Amino acid sequence: MRQVRGKDTRPEMVVRRLAHRLGYRFRLHRRDLPGSPDLVFPARRAVIFVHGCFWHQHDCPRGARRPASNASYWHPKLARNVERDREARQRLESQGWRTLVIWECEMRSADELSRRLTDFLGG
Question: Is residue 1 assigned to a domain?
Fold first, then answer.
């Protein structure tokens, strides 16, 4: 697990490049915010989390997979990830931040991702 990245993952880099190309400027991984969001847009009071489907248990086929070996370790760990994500979003929203979660499986279409970013962040 030491090799599993928490920052600068491939899906995160795709979103960062696209947001920058669309003209949005942002900060990365602000540790003073709950959940340390992947992208922070301070002027827009908006944050984006880029989640891997497996690690954050999305309801797509990739996220629905559960490791068969060492299940007593993995099941609580993955459940805690989901709970921590929910708590972070709630705390951010209570502080006045708008949140968007982009799942790894939703990145197949650059056009759709561009539309989601533009809809969320505005023009």
Answer: no
Q: Which helix (H) or strand (E) holds 99?
A: strand 98-103
Give the list of residues 6+ apart from residue 101 with CB closer than 8 angstroms, or none.
Answer: 48, 49, 51, 85, 89
For residue 18, being part of any structural domain is answered with: yes
In a domain, 102, yes or no: yes
**How far apart are alpha carbons 35 and 102 in whole angstroms?**
15
CA geometry: angle 114, 120, 123, nearest 5 deg:
75
Question: So what's the pLDDT on residue 4?
Answer: 57
Does any domain span residue 114?
A: yes
Contacts of residue 19, defined as CB under 8 A and 6 or more positions apart, other chains included, come to 26, 39, 48, 117, 121
- Residue 6 reports pLDDT greater than 80: no
How far apart CA 67 and CA 97 sit, in angstroms, is 34
DSSP-assigned letter for residue 95: T
Q: Is the pLDDT of residue 5 over 80?
A: no
